[in-house]
Amino acid sequence: MIKQSSLRIYSVVTFISLTIFFFSSCGSEKKVDPGKIAEYNKPAVVYIETYWKGKVSFPEVQINQDALTRYARMIYSSRRMTEEQLIMELINEILNRPELYVVPNPNVMKEKEVMSGASGSGWVITPDGYVVTNAHVVKVDDDELKQMIIMQAFQEQINEDIQVTIGDLQQMGLTLTDEQRQKLANVYASFYARYMTLLTKPVIQTFVNLGAAIPGYGNVQKGYPAEIKKSGEPAPGKDVAILKINANNLPTVTLSDEKVKIQDRVIAMGYPGVATFNPMLTQDQSNIVPTTTAGTISAFKKMGTGAWEVYQHDVAITHGNSGGPLFNEKGEVIGINTFGSGKYNSQTGSWEEVQGFNFAIPATIVKEFLNELNVKPEQGKLTQMYHEAIDLFFEDHFEAAKDKFKEIYDASSAFPYVQEMKEKCVAEINAGRNVAMFPYTYVFAGAAVVLIGLLFVLVVLPKMKKQPAVVIPSVTSVKTTVEEEVKKISESTTTSSSTKFCTNCGEKLQSGAKFCPSCGTKVM
């Protein structure tokens, strides 16, 4: 038979276990709804633009008039033709043998400043402005950069010259065929490839953009100049860069410490160019928002010398996603999307992208870069509040969510998407879809009181009953004791009051004495 004390212990343990389970389950980590992951992290997933600019010089294109005149006289003397026929004949001669007629003008040098750029994705890792992206999004080799500047100027100048030439011919009533236009482009390309040079050292500027344009409010934080604090090498190197922008109270993402496994569900966020700048969409900044796609981890592959691995996954990403985060099902970053797969098309001679086989650099590599800079990932207070507000929004507590978003806005009006979410809350409230908050505080307080009371009844009270019994004296015995004490005090008082002492020397006097035995003073 089970003892009563054992039953008490069993009851207490069971109750405490259930209570701990109830309370701990309220805040335990678990898989997060993909929609929440997107909303949690949207403010911290940033659009990164890198611009490079430089100045080139080149001589003005000039036609060798002497050579062209000799050719004109030769053909005109051999056969009669109209002026229009003669001009077209001369044009074809120039297009077919440009090396004889197209020459630089030594007296006229032109300069052209060009700007170009690229874009990618990134994510904020600390509230004070540290940002993670790919190295290849923000870093370009010097020689490659010079070539890019020249090619940009090259293409722009060719297009300008072609438009001018075609316009001049049209004024003369002449039109070039497609074949002639292609030959004209080749003539200019050959000329500028030979004579165009870089005049100044290229300048690179990187900007980190947070949020999107909101009608009536403009852009929510856009275009922070960024400093490259540390950069690896583009793939197959450790393609990671850490940027710093001058800002505070920024939204952040959380880095994961968990082990990644094959077939883990993952979510990518970023700014793919084909979706962000699709020509069918409205061409304004309100469409520059992160795109969210999902898939699974499919393999681990070795990089470079085999000293480290990358995650292979089938999440749809493309150009523009580079540098963006790859999340696990808890909404934590496990990697940085870096490159995809492709194959050479022998028919077109071009490199074609193959979807479904993409790669992310693990978060452990990102942590190496952060550690070298003594940067510790941190979730800011406003980010925590934003997550709480999103939770309330998803639970249809729109009134409470609106108040929370307002609290964030009051603390930092630049926090991305807060104003937009406030307006969504108002719309839901006006539509009558708000759900009042359940009084969890009172429930938890009541549960705590019940727990304390039950512990007292089951644990403390039984122990009190086991203490040795206290003997309480009867009323009669108490009365007798009191009377005896009173008698003693009375006798003591009487004795004390009948004793006399000499007023002169203080000697104790005998009862009935008339004079002090010590000093002889008469007793009064």
From TrEMBL:
Domain Zinc-ribbon: 501-523
Keywords: Hydrolase, Membrane, Protease, Transmembrane, Transmembrane helix
Transmembrane segments: 440-461
InterPro entries the UniProt entry points to: Peptidase_S1_PA, Peptidase_S1_PA_chymotrypsin, Zinc_ribbon_dom
Single biological process term from Gene Ontology: proteolysis
Protease found in the keyword field: yes
One of the Pfam families matching this protein, by short name: Zn_Ribbon_1
Record's protein name: Trypsin-like serine protease
SUPFAM superfamilies the UniProt entry points to: Trypsin-like serine proteases
Region forming the signal peptide: none
